[in-house]
Amino acid sequence: MPRDPTLTANQQHVLDYITEYMTEHASAPSLREIADALQLRSHSSAQDYVEALVRKGALERLPQHRGLRLAHASRTETRRPALRELPLVGRVAAGSPILSDAHIETHYAVDAALFRPRADFLLRVVGLSMRDAGILDGDLIAVHRTQDADSGRIVVARLDDEITVKRLQRERGRLLLLSENPDFAPIEVDTRRASTFAIEGLYVGVIRQG
Predict the structure, then answer these.
(1) Which residue numbers are catalytic?
(2) Rg (alpha carbons) of the chain, rounded to whole number
(3) Average per-residue pLDDT in the chain?
(4) What are the tens digits of pLDDT across the range 82-138?
(5) Cβ-contact 92, 103 below 8 angstroms
(6) Which of 129, 101, 124, 197 is nearest to 158 (CA)?
(7) Are strands 121-124 and 83-89 parallel, antiparallel or unpaired?
(8) 7 DSSP 8-state letter
(9) C-alpha–C-alpha distance, residues 81 and 110, integer Å
(10) CA gap 107, 88 in Å, rounded
(11) Going from the N-terminus, what domains does the chain have, and what CATH number goes with each?
(12) Model confidence at 193: pLDDT above 50
């Protein structure tokens, strides 16, 4: 993309990476992804660059998790967003389908373009096990309904009839559910008991209320 004369060379480098990532994934990269891709010293360095780009008007913030938008994109958007009604799932009874009518507390109208792949339902987060991924207690997470997910993705999983949000990791025949908070230990799934574990969906974003 053309060089912005108000940006330093390093800021432009970060903006170029974010632009390429958003073109490919239709969402912004995490601070961890920015730091790793550009070999920055820490997530804090990535945060500093993002804040500088927001201050200089190259990026704009949106309310959802990874809520960044390229400034030039907002200037060209003239159509009204297409809204999608998403059910908010409450407490899920043991052994019952997650989208059973009995579990749905209410519905929210959400811009259908906010999440890729599409969001099929919302789930309220309880606890701080995913704090360092930007998912906090009380947040509503958007979930794409699927029964499979790549290693490294954040998933909504059913484990022993409890619904949990964790990062999925497959390694050397082991299946782990990882928290994003050092206070919580990894959970190893006993794959010999297949009935105790199932993926209910893929995390695609967060909506923070209040």
Answers:
(1) 129, 166
(2) 19
(3) 84
(4) 778 899 998 776 667 888 777 899 998 888 788 888 899 999 999 999 999 999 998
(5) yes
(6) 197
(7) parallel
(8) S
(9) 9
(10) 6
(11) 9-76 (1.10.10.10), 83-207 (2.10.109.10)
(12) yes
**Which tokens belong to 98?**
């997650």
pLDDT of 72 > 70? The answer is no
Q: Above 70 in pLDDT, residue 175?
A: yes
Spatial distance between the Cα atoms of 60 and 80, rounded to a whole number of angstroms: 18
Do residues 149 and 138 make contact, with C-beta atoms less than 8 angstroms apart?
Answer: no
Q: Has residue 75 got a pLDDT over 50? A: no
Flag whether pLDDT at 203 surpasses 90: yes
1 pLDDT higher than 60? no
How far apart (Å, rounded) are the C-alpha atoms in residues 22 and 193? Answer: 39
Residue 8's alpha-carbon distances to 4, 151, 169, in angstroms, are 8, 36, 37
H helices of 26-160, where?
A: 31-38, 43-55, 71-76
Structure token pair of residue 91: 């407490």
Separation CA 125–CA 155 (nearest Å): 12
Token look-up 């912004």 returns: 28
| Range in 13-27, 45-59, 75-89, 90-104 with the lowest mean pLDDT | 75-89
Residue 179 exposed, middle or buried by CB count within 10 Å (0-12, 13-18, 19+): buried
Nearest CA to 29 out of 10, 43, 11 is that of 43
The alpha carbon dihedral of 101, 106, 107, 110 has a sign of negative
